[in-house]
Amino acid sequence: SPAQGTGQPDTARSAALAARASRVIPGGVNSPVRAYGSVGGTPRFLVSGRGPYVTDADGTEYVDLVASWGPALLGHAQPEVIAAVQAAAARGLGFGASVPEEAELAEEIIRRVPLIERLRLVSTGTEATMTAIRLARGATGRPLIIKFAGHYHGHSDGLLAEAGSGLATLALPGSAGVTAETAGQTLVLPYNDLPALEAAFAEHGDRIAGVIAEAAAANMGVLPPEPGFTRGMIELAHRHGALVIIDEVLTGFRSGPSGYWGLQAAGATGEDFPEGVAPDLFTFGKVVGGGLPLAALGGRAELMDLLAPLGPVYQAGTLSGNPVAVAAGLTTLRLADAAAYARLATAADTLALSVSEALTSAGVAHRIARAGTLFSVAFGDYERAPRTYADMQRQDVVKHRAFFHAMLAGGVNLPPSAFEAWFVTAAHDDAALERIARVLPAAAVAAARAEG
Ligand code: PLP
């Protein structure tokens, strides 16, 4: 393919499509990061995917490290997932009534995260976290929510403050259109800072409904909680009668078979959680929908049964539990067995090592952060491992931009932002990893030469 040659890939069709889209869609995109705002250049319009590869409108094939921003755990167009989706679609796209497979998907998720007794399916991660927060407020009768700077929980009004993801890319602290009253109900604290959390509880303890945290932060680059932080957060919240919501929309069933909490609870992160020290609610998205719009929230029966129709906390959705999305999610999770996670882990290990070696040989200062099979590369001269949003924001975005474009020209599709995880899939085999490895040295040199 042209991207593998020495020249720049042809982008004429993508450029024409971007111009056309920009006339009818704000910024030409339906989600901001797709606009290449922080890296510049022509956003690639993708027309197909297969395993670890995607192909753009100009016919150039790339090794993909975006994976639909997480859902494509098994790679693109996985044949069994596509067959299940086609079979479900042929039976009808949805009826606004329950279908048998919804409970099967809930059972599969509960099998992986046994703390969950009841699960509600929704269509997006944003809905899952928004509902979890309403539930925390409904259960406690308290108004305030604590979130951490750099953690992204979707785009509902109360959760946009200092939220990472596209907001990190655009360097926005929040969003216009969110009232001061709404923003004032969210306390934003520095991540990995238990004294700050303790102070917030000391001051507002009896008004705090819950604390929401990404299981491991992955929307400002990957930044796992320091050992002791999650446990301290849960203990503090519970001491003050507040609930803990662990957002596994990104990490769930990706960073490991039971999500990042599963790794923590199993002792794989070097932490220790005494009996009873556990989150109250979990949110999932991305992988649970296998690439179609589907997300979920779950927790103990006593809490979840506060949702309508049993309880007073209202929540609903025309397309919730949609049979086509359920088929994609259920088939993906059933195929995501130990062997698939082993392939993911190998791909992440191999890639993280080869990126680091290439950058080191070119003299580019960087830090690789890992959370299970998730990782990201922070460009910058860090004396110690980054631990807060402020640390991540100090990244050298000029070096990232040069690196990104050199990789793209060489046929590797990286997330177009310095503040995102790199997503491998179980389909990233040796051939795909070798293709990436061939491009890395030149991209590292491009990063070395780029000066801000
Ligand atoms: N929570 C986390 C941790 C996420 O990473 C995301 C999306 O990236 C969301 C929530 C929002 O999910 P969605 O984009 O499906 O609304």
Automatic annotation (TrEMBL):
Query: What are the record keywords, sorted?
Result: Cytoplasm, Isomerase, Porphyrin biosynthesis, Pyridoxal phosphate
Per the UniProt record, one Pfam family is: Aminotran_3
Instruction: Please tell me where this protein is predominantly located.
Output: cytoplasm
Kindly give the InterPro entries that the UniProt entry links to this protein. 4pyrrol_synth_GluAld_NH2Trfase (IPR004639), Aminotrans_3 (IPR005814), PyrdxlP-dep_Trfase (IPR015424), PyrdxlP-dep_Trfase_major (IPR015421), PyrdxlP-dep_Trfase_small (IPR015422)
Q: In which pathway does it act?
A: Porphyrin-containing compound metabolism; protoporphyrin-IX biosynthesis; 5-aminolevulinate from L-glutamyl-tRNA(Glu): step 2/2
Q: What class of enzyme is it?
A: isomerase
Can you list the GO cellular component terms from the UniProt entry? cytoplasm
The molecular function terms of the Gene Ontology recorded here are: glutamate-1-semialdehyde 2,1-aminomutase activity; pyridoxal phosphate binding; transaminase activity
Query: Which catalysed reactions does the entry list for this protein?
Result: (S)-4-amino-5-oxopentanoate = 5-aminolevulinate
Q: Where in the cell is it found?
A: Cytoplasm
The EC designation for this entry is 5.4.3.8
Instruction: Provide a GO biological process annotation.
Output: protoporphyrinogen IX biosynthetic process
Recorded superkingdom: Bacteria
Subunit architecture: Homodimer.
Spell out the family assignment given in the record's similarity comment: Belongs to the class-III pyridoxal-phosphate-dependent aminotransferase family. HemL subfamily.
**HAMAP family documented for this protein:** HemL_aminotrans_3
Which protein, by its recorded name, is this?
A: Glutamate-1-semialdehyde 2,1-aminomutase
Per the UniProt entry, what species is this protein from, by scientific name?
Leucobacter luti
Q: Which gene encodes it?
A: hemL
